[in-house]
Specification:
The protein has helices at residues 2-18, 31-37, and strands at residues 41-49, 52-63, 68-77, 80-91, 96-103, 110-116, 122-130, 136-147, 150-158, 164-174. It is mainly beta and 176 residues long. Strands 1-2-3-4-5-6-7-8-9-10 form a ten-stranded antiparallel beta barrel. A hairpin with a 4-residue loop joins strand 4 and strand 5.
Length: 176
């Protein structure tokens, strides 16, 4: 009798776990991800850093079920080849955009969170990155959509002189 009761509990629990209503529904891209989706495509980049200028290319695409904007950047930085990859999405619990950036100059990812301004044209992200001294430092990134095919990215943090301020800018122009 006890064995039959245990079997009944097991069957009832299994039915709950396996029933479609009890399974978690997969997340679906919300309207916030439409802002990121607008970046899909290939962009020519001009980076300005410390009086020098270099060129690069960024490719953006929505991936992972439309939940993440994946970026792939290739170019030069300080006369050396440079590449980086980014993952951007929106966290509905914190109501903030989230970003992870990795590149060929560091083994430590940069993680940031942020929000768009009320007009939806300027995304400001803040977080941490490893500085030139090897210590973690605060960073701020501002991406401003000038129009649907022009974007200006500005990175703020600690520069080579040890002072906080604008580190570099990247002007992006969508490739047609």
């Amino acid at each position: 009798m006890r064995r039959l009761f245990s079997l009944g509990i097991f069957v009832a629990a299994a039915a709950l776990v396996l029933s479609p209503a009890a399974r978690a529904q997969p997340a679906k891209p919300g309207p916030e991800l439409e802002k990121l989706k607008q970046l899909e495509g290939t962009w020519e980049a001009t980076m300005k850093f410390g009086g020098s200028e270099s060129k690069g290319t960024a490719v953006y695409r929505m991936d992972l079920g439309g939940m993440w904007l994946v970026s792939d950047f290739k170019g030069e930085f300080g006369g050396m080849p440079f590449s980086g990859k980014g993952l951007d999405s929106y966290d509905p619990l914190t109501k903030k955009y989230v970003s992870v950036w990795v590149d060929s100059m560091s083994t430590v990812p940069m993680t940031t969170t942020g929000e768009y301004d009320k007009d939806g044209k300027v995304l400001t992200m803040t977080g941490e990155s490893r500085g030139p001294d090897g210590k973690m430092q605060k960073v701020k990134m501002v991406s401003e959509m000038k129009d649907k095919d022009t974007m200006l990215f500005t990175m703020f943090g600690q520069g080579p002189d040890g002072k906080d301020g604008e580190m570099f800018t990247i002007s992006y122009k969508r490739k047609k």
